[in-house]
Amino acid sequence: MAEEILRIANEFGVWVIAAILVSLVAVQSIMYVKLAYAAADKIGMSQATCKTAFRTGLITAIGPVIAIFIIMVGMMSVIGGPMSWMRLSIIGAAPTELTAARVGAEAYGVGFGSPEYDMMALATSWWTMAINGVGWLLLVGLFSHKLETLRDVIGGGNAKWLAMLSGAAMLGVFGYLNSGDVVAGGARLVAVIVGGISMVLMVTVVIKKVPALKEYSLGIAMLIGMFGAVIVSLMS
Amino acid sequence: MSDKNFNMDKDWRAPAIKLGMITLLLASVLSFLPVIYLYLVHGVIPPVSLMLKSWGMIALLFGAFYIVEPVSYYAVLGLAGTYMSFLSGNISNLRLPCAAMALDVTETEPGTKEAEVVSTLGIAGSIITNLIGVTLAAFIGTALIRVFPPVIANAFRTYTVPAIFGAVFGQFAIKYPKLAIVGFAIPVGLRLFTTLPVWVLIAASVLGTIAVAKLIFSRETPASV
């Protein structure tokens, strides 16, 4: 795409808009943290448990966030800095956002990133990313509380079944998420298998001997899976 | 449990729903600011017909996910967690793993009120790391990226996602080995032997695994169901 288009995508005004949305995400998190602490106090949960939960989320996120960081630096040269910052702070991961930007250009009839990609193409890309994200935001914003009712009905208030229900949902979701890499085979399959086995070993062996590693276990398993895949990809 | 008059509806659900609704609807409106900016500052805005065309094209690709994902993830994310995760995105690679780890590390039973608090805090932690990461990328990313040798950068870009997906699956497979077989077999089988759209695969995997869980649970505890 022309330098001129990327210059406009990086204008100060767009940075300001991006900052507003990034702040909204931060403010929402802080307010839910406050709500959680207030609830914890009334339930009689310890502050230590709350801190551990927060810290675990903070630590477990580090590996995947490094990946997002690297992908985002590449994305900035395509859709500009502020839009990358804004879109990767809200719903829609990098592949979704790049698909939306591309679909916008195609709807207008030019190649994404081609010399014909003009101001109108940029506007259509931005529109498409926005309207796509809003699909999730609106449906979740308006109807999530109905899902709570649905869970009550399915869960039926039985604690053991509710735990098993969320375990089953998790295995279904991650079985699906893994299936693409499993069918693809090669180093991606190796990443899945080595990551999975490492986590099983972390939980059944390593953490029993070194309990301090518990908060890091998923991050460590991810790193081992990643390096296993790299070794296989370098050998083949 | 020493509940100091904790009321699930008044002290958790009502404020969580109010905060979630306000922030997500606000984000919906603010999402269009970049488009409005291009119009006000540069006088460029797609004609309505083009807007509708690209909306139709993108909804065809992702529309089913707007519904399938919140329903599928709800049992794990909980009420506040759902609002937080669908505002901040990156759900499968960040929010779900972090919520699950927070529950594990604090030894909290899923589906309880304690679990709502713990997964909310785990997700909040992951959002903070996420925001720090993307903000660093936005402002000093191009300089900072040079510290990663190409092999390492490529490893993170290509293999962190499959590796964390595999690891989370392993984490739950230990707890429910029978369900792990079901959760693995349904999507892999459907991918190998059918050409169903992706959103059908998610729904079939999640609902199929829950249905088998129900069967197993009913058989093991016949009196309670």
Present the secondary structure layout.
The complex is a heterodimer of chains A (236) and B (225).
Chain A: H1 3-9, H2 12-43, H3 47-60, H4 62-79, H5 81-87, H6 94-108, H7 119-155, H8 159-184, H9 186-209, H10 217-235
Helix pairs in contact in A: 2-5, 4-5, 6-7, 8-9, 9-10
Chain B: H1 8-30, H2 33-42, H3 48-88, H4 91-105, H5 113-144, H6 150-175, H7 177-193, H8 198-220
Q: Please report which band the strand proportion of chain B falls in: under 5%, 5-15%, 15-25%, 25-35%, 35-45% or over 45%.
A: under 5%
Mean pLDDT of chain B: 91
SS-based class of chain A: mainly alpha
The Rg value of chain B, from CA coordinates, equals: 21 Å
Task: Please give the alpha-carbon distance between the first and last residues of chain A.
Answer: 36 Å
The most extensive contact between chains is: A-B, 160 and 167 residues
H/E series of chain B, N to C?
HHHHHHHH
Specify the helix fraction band of chain A: over 70%
Compute the separation of the termini of chain B in Å: 25 Å
Residue share in helix of chain B: over 70%
Summed up, the helix count of chain A is 10
Beta-strand residue fraction of chain A: under 5%
Uncertain runs of chain B: none
Shape call of chain B:
globular
Beta strands of chain B, count: 0
- Number of separate domains of chain A: 2
Identify the overall geometry of chain A: globular
| Number of helical stretches of at least 4 residues of chain B | 8
Mean of pLDDT of chain A: 92
